[in-house]
Design brief:
homodimer; mainly alpha; Arc Repressor Mutant, subunit A; 2 domains; 3-stranded antiparallel beta sheet; 6 helices; 62% helix; elongated; DNA-binding
DNA sequence: TATATACGGAACCACATGGTTCAGTATTCA
DNA sequence: TGAATACTGAACCATGTGGTTCCGTATATA
């Protein structure tokens, strides 16, 4: 029984809301990398990148391991299951909400076409 | 290749990172509501709720309409398409990254199977 | 008309975020 | 050994966030 805590989803979505961090995830999807590698690739200081990696690690998206003086980052065990589940569930809700209201969807289509000249709307 | 604007995804994920706002979305999935309704349901001031609704509106998840003195909120035209796309794409990346590790991929397959069949999970 | 309701907006607050610099420590290598 | 490398951590800064209160305005209602 998968029970996702609100806290995890919070930190996960927060982690994903930064373009640098999404970039880091994509980068690590291609190859493992050190802090220095990532800092260089995203044009910021080591300290700055370390913070981002820390956030990703906190969210469970990244694991790191230090060998010698180099800390290597790689994708962690979480594959965004819970976030995918939340979004999927919401999309069902959303679709159901719009399915039920045919008139609204029609209204919406008309609106997108005529670009907001009509204000009269029944709901 | 899907081209999604980084800005939109940023604000979308940021909007979803707050549990109150996710709650509001789920609530609006069940029924439209006024600011006062939502403020009461989530135990905060009108002004506080108005800010949350503003964030959701900015992200395109919610639309509002004022009739008389009541502003009614409803789910907007965006159904998290871009966010679902990003996550789906990342999950593929992630899975490919772990292809080498047999135990993990087995775990993934088992999970995806049960995910696809039964969506019985709650928030 | 008087009053209660529902919102709008400004200002404030504590704390988080996304960066930086600076001063270390631990490793590697010539 | 000594110098360069790779990171760590503290401190700082500007801005953003999630709330609040206070006051104002428009609308509904008795």
């Amino acid at each position: 029984m998968v029970q996702y805590s609100s806290f995890r989803v919070d930190t996960a979505f927060a982690a994903l809301s930064d373009p640098t961090r999404r970039g880091v995830l994509e980068q690590l999807g291609r190859a493992d990398a050190s802090i220095t590698d990532l800092a260089g690739k995203f044009h910021m200081t080591l300290t700055g990148m370390k913070k981002h990696v820390g956030v990703l690690q906190e969210a469970g998206f990244v694991t790191t391991q230090k060998v010698g003086r180099v800390r290597t980052c790689k994708l962690g065990p979480r594959g965004l299951e819970e976030e995918a589940a939340w979004i999927s569930r919401y999309r069902q809700l959303w679709a159901a909400r719009f399915d039920a209201l045919d008139t609204v969807i029609e209204e919406l289509k008309r609106k997108e076409k005529s670009d907001g000249r009509r204000k009269t709307r029944r709901a």
